[in-house]
Design brief:
single chain, 274 residues, alpha/beta, Rossmann fold, seven-stranded mixed sheet, two-stranded antiparallel ribbon, 19% strand
């Protein structure tokens, strides 16, 4: 099987958006990792590191006596991650390019984690099973994924620019073959991978008001998926000038007094048996 296309592309703009997204999602991801048991002194494998933000969060959690090894197939993103790690003077993080499902890694690890990774796997069950082999007995496997539901967005936001932007993003992800309901299938994926019943933690981000970061994140996500949307002939013209999209979303939110609700994020974690 072939992995779904990364609908957001791998441009410099997308790499910047990943950091924006990391800042937006950091509180709920940090809560999830702490709940899963990530603690000082651990050696942690970060799957799908991108430009490094999750790895940097993990580096804080494991402390100077711990270590984080980040893996990603995007060499350009990892170059930026290494540069940022140097600027942050992080000595407990390293990045390795490759596919975690096929490569040899300097394990075993106390934990293997990832955020928004499995939705891009052709076979999440096989991916989890393989990733778990890098983890020591009684170690942690913890992944946080999301659901994207166009109909729910339409029902929440009605006939609005916000609804159209969210629906366009969701339609593009679906057209690219991304697993848009990955968080709903996360429990089953862990069980089918032979990891047992995971503990689950679900959250979403909600907010509004002038300058709320969610609107910028949403507009930049739309800009990242725009080339893929055009490839699949998903119309962008109704959304107007993409360069002014953030401000128009903010203006609409102020006029309608409508808050922005993020997709649902669900984290699942287990202690391995072997």
């Amino acid at each position: 099987m072939t992995d779904p296309t990364y609908a957001l592309g791998r441009s410099d703009e997308e790499h910047a958006r990943l950091t924006e997204q990391a800042n937006f999602l950091r509180p709920l991801t940090e809560r999830f990792f702490r709940e899963a048991g990530i603690a000082p002194g651990m050696k942690v494998l970060d799957v799908g590191s991108g430009v490094g933000d999750v790895a940097f969060l993990l580096a804080e959690l494991v402390g100077r006596d711990g270590k984080v090894v980040g893996v990603d197939i995007d060499g350009g993103a990892l170059e930026k991650a290494r540069k940022r790690a140097g600027q942050l003077e992080l000595r407990n993080v390293e990045f390795v390019q490759g596919d975690v499902r096929t490569m040899t890694l300097p394990g075993p690890f106390d934990a293997a984690v990832g955020r928004l990774v499995l939705l891009y796997c052709a076979d999440p069950v096989a991916a989890l099973a393989r990733i778990s082999t890098h983890v020591r007995p009684k170690g942690i496997v913890a992944f946080q994924e999301m659901d994207l539901n166009e109909m729910a967005a339409r029902a929440t936001y009605g006939d609005s620019l916000l609804a159209s932007v969210v629906a366009t993003i969701y339609r593009t992800f679906a057209a690219a073959g991304v697993r848009t309901n990955m968080s709903s299938g996360l429990r089953h994926a862990f069980v089918e991978a032979g990891l047992g019943e995971p503990e689950l933690l679900g959250e979403f981000v909600v907010g509004g008001g002038p300058g709320y970061a969610g609107y910028s994140w949403l507009a930049n996500t739309l800009r990242s998926v725009a080339p893929m949307a055009r490839k699949f002939e998903i119309p962008l013209e109704p959304l107007g000038d993409l360069d002014t999209l953030t401000q128009r979303l903010l203006s609409e939110a102020a006029d309608t007094k409508r808050d922005f609700w993020s997709p649902q994020y669900v984290g699942a974690f287990v202690r391995t048996n072997s």
